[in-house]
Amino acid sequence: MGLTKTEEFTKTQNDLASLAKAIGHPARIAILQFLIKTKSCVCGDIVDELPLSQSTVSQHLSELKKAGLIKGEIDGPSVCYCIDEKAWGKAKKVIGELFDSYTGQNCC
Amino acid sequence: MGLTKTEEFTKTQNDLASLAKAIGHPARIAILQFLIKTKSCVCGDIVDELPLSQSTVSQHLSELKKAGLIKGEIDGPSVCYCIDEKAWGKAKKVIGELFDSYTGQNCC
DNA sequence: AACATTTATCGTAATATTACGATAAATAGC
DNA sequence: GCTATTTATCGTAATATTACGATAAATGTT
């Protein structure tokens, strides 16, 4: 016990859950918002912006990257993180479809 | 350590994260999809549908309720769970806004 | 080559999550 | 009032997450 029974659910359900989970932390929301609004995507700038240590921010970045929402490009000694446009669009679509599938009809 | 520094982030960021977190589990996705598609919202029917024990399903339902996405109405000895239309619409809007705020412009 | 800067990874600790069985609580029917 | 049915809660165990400091790795600069 203690581990999600991934294999019992469909790929779609697992993919959707993974995406939502990646977004499911205020620090990662803050990182995404920062990447969207600013011109600077350098990791160090994100660390300066957030009230978290460098290693913690790096971990959050790594999870966002694992979920595919962002990508990192090495730029000298630093790394430039950006929204992965294609994956972002797909996530938007998949999550949007879940919300749209409810048409407002309840049985009770 | 080990606990999220909620107070360091904005209410919007925390609310968004809470919503995403609630959706961030395949079982809860499955529950939501089931509630949306079926006419039956009785807890027992959800338990029959999912590959999880009754107590685990009840826990997931409780989290979805805590997040405000569903509501439960007592119907005799059983409970009828339904999507909370108002909260669903709000969640859809808030999450949609996050995705829409990215217009496809990266710095790198 | 030595050094500074930047980021990732490791090790660790605390808390949270997931899951289950067992039990309790509430209602319906006899 | 007893019994069956349905759901919530409690107790517990295993794994995951969050966070930090310390250290390693990689690059640029002197």
Automatic annotation (TrEMBL), chains A, B:
<dbReference type="InterPro" id="IPR036388">
    <property type="entry name" value="WH-like_DNA-bd_sf"/>
</dbReference>
<dbReference type="InterPro" id="IPR051081">
    <property type="entry name" value="HTH_MetalResp_TranReg"/>
</dbReference>
<feature type="domain" description="HTH arsR-type">
    <location>
        <begin position="8"/>
        <end position="106"/>
    </location>
</feature>
<keyword id="KW-0238">DNA-binding</keyword>
<keyword id="KW-0804">Transcription</keyword>
<protein>
    <submittedName>
        <fullName>Winged helix-turn-helix domain-containing protein</fullName>
    </submittedName>
</protein>
<keyword id="KW-0805">Transcription regulation</keyword>
<dbReference type="InterPro" id="IPR011991">
    <property type="entry name" value="ArsR-like_HTH"/>
</dbReference>
<dbReference type="InterPro" id="IPR036390">
    <property type="entry name" value="WH_DNA-bd_sf"/>
</dbReference>
<dbReference type="GO" id="GO:0003677">
    <property type="term" value="F:DNA binding"/>
</dbReference>
<dbReference type="GO" id="GO:0003700">
    <property type="term" value="F:DNA-binding transcription factor activity"/>
</dbReference>
<dbReference type="Pfam" id="PF01022">
    <property type="entry name" value="HTH_5"/>
</dbReference>
<dbReference type="InterPro" id="IPR001845">
    <property type="entry name" value="HTH_ArsR_DNA-bd_dom"/>
</dbReference>
